[in-house]
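Sequence in, structure out. Go.
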Amino acid sequence: MRILVVGGGTAGTIIANNLARRLGPETRSGKVRITMLSASDRHMYQPGLLYVAFGQMAPDQLYRDQASLLEPNIDFHVDPVKQFMLDKNQVTTESGKVYEYDIIVIATGSRMVPDETPGLTEGAEFFYTEASAVKMYQKLREFQGGKVAVAVGVPHKCPIAPVEVMFALNDFFKARGIRDKVNLKYYYPIGRIHTIENVAKWAKPEFDKMGVEYETLFNIREVDAKNKILKSEEGTEVDYDLLIVIPQHRGMEVIERDNLGQGGWIPTDRYKLTMTGHDNVYVVGDTTNLPVSKTGSAAHFQAEVVAENIASIVKIGSPVRDYDGKVYCFIEAGHEKATYAMFNYLNPPDLKPPSKPMHWFKLSYNQMYWTSVRGLL
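Output:
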């Protein structure tokens, strides 16, 4: 059986490693072959980008060599997929090769698209790529006071990030001794300050304590970078001295180009994690259109289900587990404290008061991540 994993991020790496261990005898005998196609020879710890944006982590700390994270019985190639031919059980790659499969896992992730909003690229700071995170840190270091606007586009990856940014900004400007010279204001697209109702209820009094102002029902329309004005679809205009944006995201270009899903999000069965209409196509992580957060933890929990099911198909002919929508998100809450949001399709999160032990657990996980993607945690 030929198993093809497309994408070397969190979900793809966990699945490939998990399968490699579960199917060790089958790979050694030649009954199973596991192939991974990735766009890069490096693996990035994406949550670390926020630390880079605040000078708490160096960019080179974000990366490991992808091959070093993989089990030896995985056939790994840096060769991005150019076209998916699902009806033929084939993909073609940038190198011109054709890979055939019996089961495919699509874990291609997502990308920010600030260029789709007029003026956003020129007028705002971001932290969703290494370059943008470094640039944001430089801007924060240079900032001497004034109006800081933090605006949120949708959909975006890591839905807790907008809230964490506000705590981080408050701490950063306090540490520099200029918090009293900074007006922090947060703009969110729906009628509360976070999509998840219980997160919104928890964050609102926290914002009030920090002196963070907020405006809801604010959807970004365009940015006048020259005059430093942020404009909303609702018709309001905001002047700023520094604009930080959580930009709108889309799935990868190849997904859109091959019409696998609107916006680059592939229609996915919420329990089986298979693509609608294709039982041998599994979709995980940011690539899905599932109603769960696009986070590393969701990718991790989905990856464990998919790996167990594919291994079971090989061994007994059928899958054995469903995905229940589980997500676990750390929330850095300032003053070296953190809390977490854990939820699934049926149960909303119940947030606890932030604590120092949870903050230290989060910092520890920054290192444990590399064990996690190897499928050992």
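Check: The radius of gyration is 21 Å. Residues 2-109+252-327 form a domain with the FAD/NAD(P)-binding domain fold (CATH 3.50.50.60).
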